[in-house]
Specification:
The structure is a homodimer.
Chain A: H1 2-21, E1 30-31, H2 35-45, E2 49-50, E3 53-54, E4 67-76, E5 80-87, E6 89-94, E7 97-98, E8 105-108, E9 111-120, E10 127-131, E11 142-144, E12 166-167, E13 169-170, E14 187-191, E15 194-198, E16 201-230, H3 233-236, E17 244-259, E18 264-278, E19 281-287, E20 296-299, H4 302-317, E21 319-320, E22 322-323, H5 335-347, H6 352-363, H7 376-393, H8 396-414, E23 444-445, H9 446-465, H10 469-490, E24 491-492, E25 497-498, E26 501-503, E27 506-507, H11 513-519, H12 527-535, H13 546-558, H14 562-578, H15 617-625, E28 628-630, E29 637-640, E30 649-656, E31 659-666, E32 669-673, E33 678-684, E34 697-700, E35 703-708, E36 713-717
Helix pairs in contact in A: 2-6, 5-6, 5-7, 5-15, 6-7, 7-8, 7-9, 8-9, 9-10, 9-11, 11-12, 11-13, 13-14
């Protein structure tokens, strides 16, 4: 362990020193990586209420290191004056010598020097902002929570080479007057689309699902007010069952505007007064994360376009600094939900910061005392999300910063394997999989082993990225061993499917969709069998959450079933739209009727009507219709494999780290422009595709591959099959 | 692991349920055990400054859990109303059902119920105060940072039996209006004993070492003021070298009193003004921990009595919520220093709360990333301190609360053993031992192995106390194995001593006092040889810190050298008094001259003149002269083995958990009264001791044992040898 730490230190130092020689970017507030993200998520996640009562998470919330040392070696051709800002008490050392007091300006002489700023802060995360002509606090600074720097009785300083340094965390806070702890999401006023006053109640409709702070204008009088929030009109009109509410005591002689202190999710609010209370009108401040869309999709199918737009709105509503599950409840960061939001994000906003912030918050800090969100599957989605993040962004820095946390988490998991090397639910483990009636969680569930194997593959990849060569081999061997075991133990050749579980050492006979649809991505040789024996088999229990429909439809798309999936999308998401949905739901069972749709968890309005996992069409349309997928990290190489799936035409953009790939596809023509990497356009055409600057490579079976270089616009004529 | 956690849960539950049936004590603020102690220590330890600059520790400071669940099963014969106070946002559940809002009053119906309060607080430690007629928050409540309580889609609650609960921590905060985060040490005004004004300077003498906030009375004018603090007059009069100072900008038209914001250590302050600044006088607010003395000592030797009084004052000054090393610097909690303060405390204040607070703060939280205070020996003193704490107090509760932390710390240590099962300094480990010129830290130092063995013995004892039977055996075997190895590898029969270290697999020839004086307590058969070959051998490098003199003199006392030790005490501590000390120092080398005594760490006034480890006469006089020592936990059995060591008489009190043992001893008479346990008075007498209610048991060699029962006063006549 120790040797590795020193290695890290040297590696980073080398990085820093070279970074130091270039002119630095804009100064940023910096902190220990993950600490601010965890701190902020504590605040954001603790905004859930249920009928006015604070409703926090039920897993461990972590806390920041209160004492932090920031360090930076510099080389200056001339002396430079620095402004110093900090959140907390601090001292500044230059070349190991402390300057007096808490200086807000520091002069660094010409030459080689080492700057240290040490900060203590209990309530908020220790952070600094340093700005000079060339010296600027940024992620090239090093941080440690333990500098191990002692002196002996003669005043000699200790060797501190064992100190473990990481690169500082940052999140584009560039204003010294706006420290990270002051961060708030932006708001803008939104006015109601209609209001009906009925005696002592006022029902206000904002026209569609929204999120923010209700504002009562011209409030006056004496009495009580209760605001019942409703994602549906039925919920707002149910004083007994509405999931969220605000209660106010009013005693106001002159009219005032009153803003509710906590943001809420709603389309409707029903304001009920007792006593003599009046108001002029009701508006709201819409609270949002200001992240622009980079991806887009439109097509010849208007319903599909509407599905895409509502999915976009749903994802935006559930992107609030972090990828949360839903806006009414839980307003928490759930790993399985965030995993899908990440993937949708790569096809819409492509905002790395929300992904990494979410991943830091989910992982929390050591020691690991339970699975992420207490759910075994959710631990694995976290690992798989790291893999995806690297593939879509090529960001090695984040992997380096997190590798220790990845290792301690996988160690926790490995420590819970049984004698057969498999995972089963131990006390305290939640085996979630999906909300589905009667789903067995007993014994060793195949789905969990499969996700575990994919997590080990992620470990192996990341080990290579951080030069942990032993780890890379060890994790790869573990992953391969587990995959082999998985197919040996769970494949039922009669059923042509992976069975659901193994109980008391015996494979069961039950087949569910879960493991089978994930196994598609293991290049399962039996995958075509699984398609008909499981995925398209109506005798296998159906999935009723958009959450698992995500993977089911993805698996079908991956096997070329775009036409079938388009029909499913139109039925399923179109079905919600027909019921008046203005954002997509946590669960949708077409067999239910009217307000039955709003019930869940044994509560009439328990269901969330704006749930991020409902927005998966964004991902499916971008990846499997426009067909754009990275093959290697950060789109260095990628493939475009468009599939109209019955559409006459479609067009759109897919974001990459270097800009958007633009695409138009009809049965006769494809237009492509890409800013990035080496792409391959892969199409089926009855005739050899034509166009300028293209050299179609016939791959047999009417399949052609066309190389796409960055910066050029390609117009290709072909005849779709 | 999991099975053990459930066991804990059941064990505690059983404890609680029975506690619940009795009428509760006074309500207290409660929290997760250790969290408040750590939080408070973060604040207290970050009050060190050096020449006006914030000077924090260089090890990891931990942080509290921000989200806490408090739980209590109750059974009520009639309904009861509770007042609820909390630090943080909270909710209240009765039988799993959340009450609306954050109720400050809750009614619990008659019958069996389960109360839960869940609190989120980032800046301060989540804490609650609940008060009803019979239901009162106290340490019988359970707490967890992770309740793992989820519901399924039908609203069914999860099995939470895997949740790990501990008993709540508390510290006698019984006022709901004074939450733990508001705690401050008390202060009282103290006036200067003299002041000399000399032009623009004013030198104020408070007559002896003290600690607190300087107050300037009648301050007025325009200009600058600097307050130079001095533990010595020389330091206060040295603007360039004084270790602590305050700088003020003054612009005051009407006279004000100005209180310095940070407490400091000093006897002298030198106030130097620039510009037109005047003041009437200077006083201070003495800041202290209000802990009464229970132990006492006086004797026929006036110098010794004075040493005892100054030692008492020294220990009190260094007892500031926690046992800190010194009051000028570092004002930190160092494990080696605290270990000695703990022992002195058992003979003076016997304040359990300061011990446990200090132990919690030292241990911090998992994961363990370095030795305590980064020092290998200091990790071991922590373990040994737990052993002593149990022996002197019999408090099993603290052991139960800490056993997990003990296990993770010993696991860290064991993971650092080399192939021979020994410990040597790895990068980041500070091998401290003592401040001594030329002391080798290379290779495997015998002293560290010895302390490691004693730590393993502590683990074995504590494992038994918490019913970890496997652990008890495993740790005992490890301890025995290590002790055997220690004597095999380090005992040099020619030198009749343990050698200092082993380098590259070879035992060195160097003999130092350290391991040898500690080995005395292992019932070393060679101990009488060690006494002359090492402890009384002037050719072995002398110890110059009171820190290590503590153990050296203790070892000599344990071998009956009270007369010699008395002389040493009078020389060494008496030597400091002759130099004008009003509190005892960090280091004292009689060979130094005048202000040389104040220098250390390469700085003229680097030495601390009030250091807790200077107060060891309290311990030596109580344990080895009055001779009172517990034999089993909490003084259930104990021995009194008085040794006058040349004094004509002595008298004093030694605290026990049940009151003080009172003792008067002269050459002819011994008076004893004890409130506790079964004691044995062990004396040497030329004749058979006489007195009422005594049955002297002759043990041969003129030694007699007399049984001492609680509550009786014994007057024994004898003839000392």
């Amino acid at each position: 362990m120790t040797r590795k730490l020193i290695l890290f230190y040297i590696m980073f130092c080398a990085g820093i020193c070279s970074a130091g020689s270039a002119v630095a970017q804009q100064a940023q507030w910096i902190w220990y990586p993950g600490d601010y993200e965890i701190w902020l998520s504590n605040h954001f996640q603790n905004r859930r209420t249920e009928r006015g009562t604070f409703f926090p998470v039920f897993w461990k919330m972590d806390n920041h290191y209160v004492l932090m040392n920031f360090s930076k070696p510099v080389e200056l051709s001339q002396a430079e004056e620095l402004s110093v800002f900090a959140e907390g008490q601090y001292n500044v050392k230059v070349d190991g010598k402390m300057l007096e007091g808490m200086p807000s300006r520091v002069t660094i002489p010409a030459g080689k020097h080492n700057i240290n700023v040490k900060v203590f802060s209990q309530a908020v995360v220790p952070a600094i902002f340093i700005n000079g002509k060339t010296i600027k606090s940024d992620s090239s600074w090093l941080v440690t929570f333990e500098d191990k720097e002692w002196i002996d009785e003669t005043g000699k300083t200790s060797d501190i080479s064992a100190t473990k340094w990481l690169q500082a965390g940052s999140d584009n806070f560039t204003d010294p007057a706006q420290p990270p702890s002051a961060f708030k999401l932006p708001v803008k006023p939104v006015y109601a689309s209609s209001a009906q006053v009925n005696g002592a109640s006022r029902l206000v409709d904002f026209g569609r699902e929204t999120f923010g702070f209700v504002k009562l204008h011209g409030l006056q009088g004496t009495g009580k007010l209760t605001i019942y929030y409703g994602e549906s009109k039925e919920e707002a009109l149910s004083p007994q069952k509405a999931e969220t509410l605000d209660r106010l005591l009013i005693n106001i002689s002159n009219k005032v505007d009153s803003l509710m202190p906590l943001s809420k999710a709603f389309r409707f609010v029903n304001i009920v007064s007792e006593g003599e209370v009046k108001m002029d009108s009701v508006s709201m401040l819409y609270e949002y994360a200001d992240i622009p869309d980079k991806g887009s999709f439109s097509s010849s199918d208007e319903q599909l376009n509407q599905i895409y737009e509502v999915a976009k709105y749903t994802l935006h509503l559930c992107t609030r600094g972090f990828f949360i599950d839903g806006i009414k409840r839980d307003r928490w960061i759930w790993s399985g939900d965030a995993y899908q939001s990440n993937l949708m994000n790569y096809y819409l906003m492509n905002d790395n910061a929300t992904v990494t912030r979410t991943m830091y918050a989910l992982r929390g800090k050591d020691p690991v005392t339970s699975h992420i969100n207490t759910i075994m599957d959710y631990t694995f989605y976290w690992f798989m999300g790291i893999y995806d993040y690297y593939l879509y962004t090529g960001d090695k820095h984040f992997i380096r910063q997190n590798y220790d946390r990845m290792e301690s988490l996988i160690k926790y998991v490995m420590g819970r394997r049984n004698k057969d090397g498999l995972l089963q639910g131990l006390p305290g483990d939640w085996i979630f999989i999906d909300w589905a009636a009667g789903l067995s969680k007993e014994g060793e569930v195949s789905f969990e082993q499969l996700l575990f194997a994919r997590s080990l593959e992620t470990m192996s990849l990341c080990a290579e990225l951080v030069d942990d060569k032993d780890g890379a081999v060890r994790y790869r061997d573990l992953a391969n061993g587990l995959k082999e075991k998985l197919f040996n133990l769970y494949w039922n050749d009669k059923k042509k499917a992976l069975v659901h579980s193994r109980v008391n050492g015996q494979s069961t006979e039950t087949v569910t969709r879960y493991a089978n649809m994930f196994a598609i991505f293991f290049d399962l040789e039996q995958k075509m069998a699984v398609k008909s024996s499981v995925l398209l088999n109506n005798n296998i229990q159906k999935i009723t959450t958009p959450y698992m429909r995500f993977y089911e439809l993805e698996a079908l798309c991956a096997m070329g079933e775009q036409k079938y999936v388009l029909g499913e999308m139109k039925n399923y998401w179109g079905g919600m739209l027909k019921l008046g949905a203005t954002s997509f739901w946590e669960e949708y069972d077409p067999s239910k009727k009217e307000s039955e749709h709003y019930a869940m968890y044994g509560r009439d309005f328990g269901k969330s009507l704006c749930h991020a996992w409902g927005a998966s069409p964004i991902y499916l349309l971008g990846k499997y219709y426009l067909g754009v997928k990275p093959l290697t990290a950060g789109y260095e190489t990628y493939v475009i494999e468009p599939a109209l799936g019955g559409l006459q035409w479609m067009q759109g953009k897919v974001p990459t780290p270097k800009g958007e790939i633009e695409l138009f596809v009809s049965n006769k023509e494809i237009k492509v422009k890409s800013p990035v990497g080496n792409g391959i356009l892969k199409i089926s055409s009855k005739k050899k595709p034509g166009g300028q600057n293209i050299t179609p490579l016939a791959k047999g079976n009417n399949v052609y591959e066309i190389s796409i270089l960055p910066g050029r616009e390609y117009v290709i004529t072909y005849t779709a099959i």
